[in-house]
Amino acid sequence: MKISIRCLLPLWRGSIRAWTWLAMTVSAAAIQPSILFAQTDTAPKSLPVIHRKFNSAEDAVALGMVSALEVRSAEFTKLAARAETESIRSQSRVQVSSNSYLSGGNESSLLYNAGGPSQFSVMAVPQRLFGEQNFTAMAPIFTGGRTQSLIHAAVSREKAADHDQKATASDTALHIRDTFFRAQFASAAITATNARLDAGMELLRIAKAQFEAGKGLQSSISRIESEIAEAQRMVTSAINLRRRALLDIATEIGVSPASDLEISAEFTPEQISGDLNSSIREALAHRSELSAAADRQDSAQHLAAAAIASQRPQVYGMAMADGSLSDPSGTHTGFTVGVVVSIPILDGGQRHADINQARWMQRKAEIDQERIRLQIETEVRSAWLDIGTAKQNLESARAEVTSAESSYEIAVVRAKNQKGLLVEVLDALSALTQARNSAAQATYDLNFASAELKHAIGSDTRTNGRAK
Predict the structure, then answer these.
(1) CA–CA distance from 103 to each of 16, 28, 107, 114, 126 (Å)?
(2) pTM for the full model?
(3) pLDDT band for position 116 (50/70/90)?
């Protein structure tokens, strides 16, 4: 329902140039906001190429919170939700529109306005030359709570979009940490296999020297050369794995894959604090997904209230001032004020169906909230299980490395004193390399489990970038 206040503008006196100037001025005023918006849009035409070294996963996460495409996309979704709220809020305010009519013919008729955002308008025109200009202002007087319910629902959707943006930032932070730790794991594998390659080259030198002195076998040289070739393949594979992980980091943080990225080679286990119960409580208090679900439930509740309010009377006031020119009557000015009351009587069941739909959507939102609550608790428990397993694997892998280093040193000493075979050294070297790779894998598993825990409790982006 609408209230119209139409301010009179003497239309048909004066030159057409004056009206043309007015139309151009109004059009320019309408277009200007869109021009300003286009100028303030900071979306890049291409991804930036950067040269940067990340000393930790948190450095990469901090950059990702600003530049990651998923995070920025969610930010614009949040801004769109805010604009939607303002659009719906405008329904509770006075709205003013202008309608101009110019007609001529041998039959009276009805002319409709051009539509769009202005109020619906119909003008009865006579068969002679006729012109009409009017201004109308309209505002709601009573809507039975429908307008306010729609506004509250939009505000809740806006809050949900804000929490969705934070959830997207949290997911992005998890992916960045994962790719960072994979790159560090690959670097550790390169170090381990390079050590094996260097040791193999040294063994090859010793074997050739012994063979030339008549104390070695050609088969030993061939075996060592085979081990060296395998080590070279492992180094190549590890280097490729590291390069791919760096590409993934560039993708996750939203920069060009052509960027020159480096990471810290220090690969140490993450420090983990807290316990299962405290983590569950923190997750239920801070996870953005759960907050977004609560906001959507609140929005559904207000939409149901708006559907119910649509059955009540809708009262709008209106006022209009207009000026007209008609041949041969000349010019005429006047005004109209009134109140319009609409009461739904029979709509074929549409409003009843709308109310049922809103109630079922409200119920669905309640179920979704419980589902997300269950999912969050499961994620926290799973993260702690992975942490426990990774800690045990890391402890045993470290012990394995210590034992393998000792066995390798003994085998080398025995071989140099000609009390052992070079094959024993090769076997010990292979076992040592495997043990070091296992320790690196266990470190990656522990760090990733730590990242999963941060994501599960919603603490991974609270101090990073824009996701606060």
Answers:
(1) 16, 26, 10, 14, 8
(2) 0.78
(3) low
